Amino acid sequence: MPEAVLEVNDAVVEFHVPGGVIRAVDGVSFQLNVGETLAIVGESGCGKTTLAKAILGLEPLKSGSIVLRGEPVSQNLKGLAERVGMVWQDPYASLDPRWRIKRAIEEPLRIHHRKNVDERLEELTNEVGLDSSLHNRFPHQLSGGQRQRVAIARALALRPPIVLCDEPTAALDLSIRAQILNLLKEIQAKHQVSFLYISHDLTTVRFIADRTIVMYLGRIVEAGETKQLFANPRHPYTRALIDSVPTLEKIGVMPKVLPGEIPDPRLRITGCRFRSRCSNRIEKCVTVDPPPTSEDSRVYFCHNPAAKRA
Ligand SMILES: Nc1ncnc2c1ncn2[C@@H]1O[C@H](COP(=O)(O)OP(=O)(O)O)[C@@H](O)[C@H]1O
Ligand SMILES: [Mg+2]
Predict the structure, then answer these.
(1) Is 99 in the pocket of ligand 1 (CB under 6 A)?
(2) Domain ranges of the chain
(3) What is the pTM of this model?
(4) Which of 1, 90, 192, 247 minimizes the number of CB atoms within 10 Å of its CB?
(5) Helix 144-156 to helix 101-111 angle, to the nearest 10 degrees?
């Protein structure tokens, strides 16, 4: 059995909003293993960031549990930064504009009274491929890619076993995106860190993730090994997402766009939540919430899955 660093068990997060309640995370369970990259994908609004915040203890769970290295998150917020590093989408927003780069990278070390701060600063700077001559600059004096490298150095500062990345390359140019993904891979190979990689961009997910979880309206609809999932998506939603990615072979062909809108998240939907947009819909989907079906390395929640690809 692979060793889990993070276990999410039937987690539920709700928001009370005018006109009702949004169950942004609705009974999500998975585990993140030592040294692996697990991606969470889905369209905007499916609950990815809320899940990330719950893992960081920033959103309380209504029910369920999140266990980091054997310890429930809600009970130990203080030591959390030592256990989870965080890289957000926009490094410009996550770095203090008034702080020089040196201070941004050093700060977690100082807060946690770590020794040999200067040494560690050099080490981290090298590790993320930055030059120490940049230490005295301010964030606005760096490029987008350099800023994201600073954010990664900060996230790694305390050597957490888990790094949570929420759309880490979404704000970057394509060429820079690849560099950042390669950097994450290098760091993982070196330190056996586990990445929880949140993204709506399937191209980067396919490149970086060992396993992938697909979410729709707060729920997992399919999960499995990335290779298998991309080669043979079984949930109609996964298939639609994958088919809508423009690939080299498909350039010149209009990508299929997923039809319809995501339903109002305040609605309590009976049966399958994806049914309003699903071309495989059958009668049962209206009334019965699909149970999990296991197949090879994956699980999906669907009454009438897409046909297997050869
Ligand atoms: N603080 C909040 N208050 C009310 N609703 C929220 C809040 N944060 C997120 N939501 C709602 O929860 C759902 C999931 O949002 P989010 O986790 O940001 O999705 P994603 O990161 O996948 O785009 C959305 O319907 C969103 O509008
Ligand atoms: Mg988000």
Answers:
(1) no
(2) 4-96+159-301
(3) 0.93
(4) 1
(5) 10
